[in-house]
Amino acid sequence: MNPRILILFAHPAFEKSRVNRVLIQNLSGIEGITFRDLYQEYPDFDIHVANEKALLEAHELLVFHYPMYWYSTPSLIKEYLDLVLEHGWAYGMKGNALEGKQMMHVITTGAQEKTYGKAGSNHFTIRQLLAPMEQTASLCKMHFLPPFVVYGSLLKTEQELDAFRQDLEVLYHAFLDKGIDFEKAAKVSCLNSLIPELKK
Ligand SMILES: Cc1cc2nc3c(=O)[nH]c(=O)nc-3n(C[C@H](O)[C@H](O)[C@H](O)COP(=O)(O)O)c2cc1C
User: Fold this and answer.
1) How many other C-beta atoms can be found within 10 angstroms of the C-beta atom of residue 79?
2) Cα–ligand 1 centroid distance for 45 (angstroms)
């Protein structure tokens, strides 16, 4: 089977990671997934644009997986977008290379879920904070999926983190085996809420 999911993992200090270390454990072993650690590939931010474009062309689902840093992605993902999504290829009159593909974000946060929203100390929902990503996907004629989020990740036990890892794998297997119902997915704030049904 050709890989259909491209996971671009970005953690600037993976040696200190507890949460994402668990979440990504098995991903490179799943048939159908291409797993890439961007900070390992490009420690000097010297992104190989042609390689990255070829990888994007070869996959259907693009996943950015990262710890939330300052309400956004770690900086290498921004660099990746700046360099790889070229005019005339990703967007613009003749830029149709990504048309119809899906973009999804897997995010771990330090702060608890209740802090993300109008009434909380972080004021915005994660979906609102992802607005530039959603619009980037739209400009590139991609479908934007709600994120899969591990809120309050620093307080999670190893068992809880392992349950999130399993949920994430359920999501990927569902995508690979039967695809995801986009209309249904568009209605939820986080893909986590689809997991119980996908497990049936
Ligand atoms: C530089 C930096 C910025 C951070 N910014 C945020 C943030 O904006 N919101 C939040 O909820 N957590 C934030 N955190 C917490 C991280 O998201 C959290 O430590 C990480 O998701 C845990 O995953 P790990 O064990 O794989 O590192 C930040 C952490 C660092 C080091």
Assistant:
1) 17
2) 21
State which H helix or E strand residue 40 sits in: helix 38-41
Q: Please state the atom number of ligand 1 nearest to the C-alpha of residue 68.
A: 17
pLDDT of residue 1: 61
Beta bridge partners of residue 63, listed in sequence order: 7, 104
State the CB neighbour count (10 A cutoff) for residue 8: 23
Q: Mean pLDDT, consecutive 10-residue segments, the chain of 200 residues?
A: 89 98 97 97 98 98 98 98 98 97 97 97 98 98 97 98 98 90 87 92
- 74 CA to centre of ligand 1 in angstroms: 10
> What is the pLDDT at residue 127?
97
Q: What CATH architecture does domain 5-199 belong to?
A: 3-Layer(aba) Sandwich (3.40)
Question: In a mutational test of the pocket of ligand 1, which residue from 70, 116, 121, 126 has the highest number of ligand atoms less than 8 Å from its CB?
Answer: 70
Domain boundaries, the chain: 5-199
Terminal Cα distance for the chain, rounded: 24
Radius of gyration of the chain (CA): 16
Q: What is the pTM of this model?
A: 0.98
Instruction: Return the pLDDT at 31.
Output: 96
Interval between CA 164 and ligand 1 midpoint (Å): 17
